[in-house]
Fold this sequence. Notes:
The complex is a heterodimer. Chain A is α/β, with parallel strands linked by helices. Chain A has 26 helices and 20 strands. In chain A, strand 3 (165-170), helix 8 (188-197) and strand 4 (201-206) form a beta-alpha-beta unit. In chain A, helix 23 (613-627) runs antiparallel to helix 24 (631-651). The N and C termini of chain B lie far apart (29 Å). By secondary structure, chain B is an alpha/beta fold. Chain B has helices spanning 25-40, 58-73, 85-93, 106-115, and strands at 8-10, 14-18, 22-23, 45-49, 55-56, 77-81, 101-103. Classes of the chains: A alpha/beta, B alpha/beta. Chains A and B meet through helix 23, helix 24 and helix 25 of A and strand 5, helix 2 and helix 3 of B.
Amino acid sequence: MDNKTIFNTCRDDEFFGRANEIEEVCQFATSAMKSFHGIFLTGRKWVGKTELLKRVYHRLFSEQNRIVPIYYRFKDTSGVKEFADDFLRDFIRQYIAFLKRKPEIMLEDVSASKLERLSADMGFADLSKFFLLHREAKKHGDHIAVLKNAISAPNQAAIHNNTPIFLMLDDFDLAANIHINEGDSGILREYMKTLTTGDVSFLITGYTKRLVEGEVSPGSVKVMELSGLDEETSAGLMREMCKRYSLNYDSEILAVAARQLEGNPVYIKSIIAAAKREERDLLTIKDFVDVYVGELVEGSIGFSLSSGISIKTLNALRILHLCISSKSGVREEDLAEEMALDDHEKGNLIPTLRELYLLETDCGLIRWIGDRVTEDYINYLYETLVMSKSQAEAKARIIKERLKEGFCMQGVRVSAEIKKELLQLLEIFNGQLIPKILFRNQEFLTKYGGKTYGKVDDIDIKEDKKISLPQMTGYFDNVKHGYGDKDIPIIIGYGFNNSRYDEENEVVWIVGLKESPVPFHTGDAEGFIRQCNAIADFKTHNVMRWIVSREGFTGDALKRLAVEGIYTTDAVQFRILKNLIEESGNVDRFHGMRELSALKEYEIVLPVSAKAELVAAKAVEEIGVNMGLDSDTITQIKTALVEACINAFEHGKVKNSKVYCRIVASDDRIVLYIKNEGRDFDASLQSNTGDVVKLIGSSRRGWGIELMKQLMDEVRFEKVHGGTRLVMVKYIKRKGEEEVYEQES
Amino acid sequence: MSRNLKDFRELNECVVIYTDNYLNDIEGEKLEDKCDLFLKRGMRKIVIDFTNTELVNSIGISILVGIMEKIRNKRGILFFSNLRKVNHDIFNMLGLTKHVQIFPTEEEAVRVITINDQ
């Protein structure tokens, strides 16, 4: 028998994001050394506590045979006898089923007397005493004995049979509703005492952390708080369900839904199931809100809430509505005065609502603690029952509010993503060739107009005109100049074109980002141009200006920006741009011409001795051959490296000093770093050019620097910790590159 | 051309001296000593053949310049032969090619130097 049928669980592909919690509980259950007695798993209604416990049970049942897992879910029963009957029967069944490896025992609906016989037949005669005591105590009306016999049974069985037990008590807070005598505070306290003083490790679940406060000694119970699934996991769950139900969806809309539903798996599943029933795709906010409000008012969510939250008076609704409206909480006295509550109502209503875990009282303030969906449900009830509005009107109000909020949520989310992605993108700008149209919104709209943000995968950009991105060396938010009320945020990036680090190729990108869900208009354009002028104290003439606007641009703004030569990109272009850059990789300058090769680094340490430089030369030769360089280029690099090494030897005045060579080979260049341990390189050496023969006689040295400069594309000295290092770069030019590469500036 | 077992070849009117794989200070000074020796023996026509030389460094070049000066002072003739392209480019860049004739082969250098009267 499949152990998963012991307790019904949801489909595996609908169970997301709880792997860590299950692992933690299982580890606690099976560990021999425990630093606390038990776990209190707390979380809102329908957040997935029961599902988690059932999955823990299945794991413990099937993956080990040492710890006996026992799962019991409290029912909303008020009698201690009913509870004890039920608990004892569940416990004995599960106990025997596990030890005999017969899960089918758990599925049979057996009476207590039959179970008693079964216990004896299967060699668990000691368990019969629990039934015997139970019968005797009931017979004599001794409810305390009935309770104690039941709740102490796991502990006694564990000791008697030397079989450790892990007891999982779901909805444990309902124990407060089980009374020995009418009007008492329930059995929760007594049960908690039994749990924390016994030898059985346990897990209890409940809605609020306060359940265990004051009932247990500090540190004896670990509190685990189970919150809703995070946004990504929730959206993943929704995507899986949409795919299974063949529903079309937009990922952004699912993200908005995930937020509204606060990651509650029950709500999420209800919404997707309702969309399936109504054959409604989830492509727009309106799609989601329509399905959501339908579920809330007339669907399974509304039904679950109405059965879970029993609101018996209009005053209770008024109190809840007032607390929802007041974000900071309402003073108890003010509430009583505003609602004109008499002492009786005040003494009953608020505690009742607290017990429903909708309100909490903290420092004299009463606050709403329910979730957003329950909030909508209460508001709906308030509108219809208190304000006497029609159901249609109340629904329309919720739809309107949720649409506004959803739109705002979507805007915030998309813009936050764009800003984050923009910064990530600037970081990997590295000479990629990108279709120019992705920086020209007007042209893009003409050619590919009508595509939405979520549909960029459908767009196949086939453009001959390309621009080369710079290699970005750093960027920052333009916080120095601050943002005026109407100014858009600006990011400034520094870099170099053509992978050449000289003044001619130095470039600055000023990037404006319009985050609000309103198109970039002429006022924004003028503001951006003004901002650019205000910060235009760069040392380079190559200043590129680029606007990224989530909602695109007005026609007039596009004209104005085109006159100024400012790049324009909307969210759709941006997404394509991002995909292209990520696909091309951040080191592929000439994509499509050859495969990417990884950056390779080599380090050689040379002693100052005769011909030691040849070791470095041999190494760089091997590297060059591996890179596929021609022999002339290799000899040029070798000669330059030899020259650099002997220069370093000459200036290394430390006894037994060494020269460090680092060779970095990438797809388009080879970079040599040479550093010694002595004095700085003499970077000021006269660079002799022309006819050296005329100069000979004064010194045999001095040609080295010029030699290196002639052989390499870049030669520079860099100040580093402990001196100076020489850096030489040779760019690898391959046939045909120049024809493809077009630099726009 | 294979490397000569001897690092020079004497002909009637000239001598061909073969350089090492790496023309640095040590090899440069050896080359200079040889040139001095032949000059002392009255040999005025010298061909330096770079067939074996892959690498040169700036000290080696300086020594070469010194050799050029000495031969010129003795009214001798100095030719280079078999220079690799990279080394030819380096010599050209540093102006050596203005003061010394360079031939693609040793034979051509020898042929020209033997008919050449200073």
